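Budget justification aside, the reviewers requested a transparent look at the raw inputs and outputs of the sequence design task funded under Objective 1. We therefore reproduce one unedited record. The lines immediately below are the structure tokens for a 222-residue chain.
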């Protein structure tokens, strides 16, 4: 079973999905982190003057979820913190908009969820990657709220970053993600919208957990 949470950057979908996964004892898949790993491959290929796609196809991307943290690895090296840098953030929308990259990451995710119950977050999971997902959520929040959340998330690993830089980056990503030709950011017709601007974190986790529990109960009775 796969449950998806889509939404723009900083809407709270990743932190919420992780908390829901821990709360319900199910698996978590962070699609955004996987695109960030691909972006890291892109930056490395540019630095070493190599073909990006050639290097991506030769790379081994792996991951696991433990103690409410999604750990990402590139060729056996833990890059969980590195992929949250501003350099990666500045290029991830550009890399993620490429149809070849999307096909590569989508295939990686579809293979991962064939077993067990997963909750995944992203921008086009409910429309492009998992259109038949049992449950779909679409999380939104105003730009200032999202910028502050993202700033609090990364300031520890990148102390020189400013709130205004984060706000500008998110606004640019909104524009790129919503207008890209390949699988743009949009709400699936059958998704449940969750506006988190005025919700506490505990409230949004509790709401989504309740809906999933109900669906899991229905699946068990089948």
């Amino acid at each position: 079973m796969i449950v998806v949470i889509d939404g723009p950057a900083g809407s709270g979908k990743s932190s919420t999905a992780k908390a829901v996964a821990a709360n319900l004892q199910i698996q978590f898949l962070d699609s955004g982190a996987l695109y960030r790993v691909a972006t890291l491959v892109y930056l490395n290929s540019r630095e070493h003057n190599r073909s990006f796609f050639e290097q991506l196809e030769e790379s081994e991307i792996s991951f696991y979820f433990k103690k409410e943290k999604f750990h990402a690895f590139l060729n056996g090296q833990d890059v969980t913190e590195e992929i949250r840098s501003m350099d990666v953030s500045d290029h991830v929308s550009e890399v993620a908009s490429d149809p070849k990259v999307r096909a590569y990451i989508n295939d990686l995710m579809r293979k991962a969820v064939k077993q067990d119950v997963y909750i995944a977050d992203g921008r086009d999971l409910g429309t492009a990657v998992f259109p038949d997902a049992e449950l779909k959520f679409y999380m939104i929040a105003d730009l200032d709220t999202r910028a502050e959340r993202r700033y609090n998330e990364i300031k520890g690993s990148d102390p020189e970053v400013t709130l205004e830089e984060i706000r500008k980056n998110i606004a640019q990503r909104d524009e790129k993600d919503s207008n890209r030709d390949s699988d743009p950011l949009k709400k699936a017709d059958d998704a449940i919208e969750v506006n988190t601007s005025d919700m506490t974190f505990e409230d949004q986790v509790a709401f989504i957990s309740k809906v999933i529990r109900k669906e899991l109960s229905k699946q068990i009775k089948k």
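The longest strand covers residues 61-66. The longest helix spans residues 201-221. Computational costs for records of this kind are itemized in the attached budget.
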